[in-house]
# Entry
Amino acid sequence: MEINKKELLDNLTKTKSSYSNGISKGHTVMPKADGKQLIVGKNIKLSGAIDVCESLVVEGTLEANLSGAKYLDIVYGGSFTGNAEVEEAHISGLFDGELTVTGILYVYETGVIKGKINYANLVVEKGGVLKGTLKNIDGAKPKTALD
# Structure
């Protein structure tokens, strides 16, 4: 998968501009799903397996196994514990478990990921935290600031 550096920076800028004072208190810029979207609202606690979901937004607390989703968005204040395999993830809250992202993983300044992290492409904003094991998958070539 070829990733355009300008596209990554543009997406990061668009996402950050939706924050209040630079801290993500709402949703990141996520494509709209046609019907297969789940939002775990603020102050909601949910647990279980999720396997028929294109887009998942976590504002509350979720303990789950998520497979086959396109987008995962954990907003500031949201918490996901478990395993997830997605195409694209935006983390402004807490993820604890095993996360596999086959496309791009964005970790914003308030985002924390703990556990086993498998990614094809990774963007970490200043202040974002990754604790655990990191593994680049899909043979994606790491990009540097000089690329």
About this structure: The chain has one helix and eight strands. Residues 12-27 have pLDDT under 50 and may be disordered.
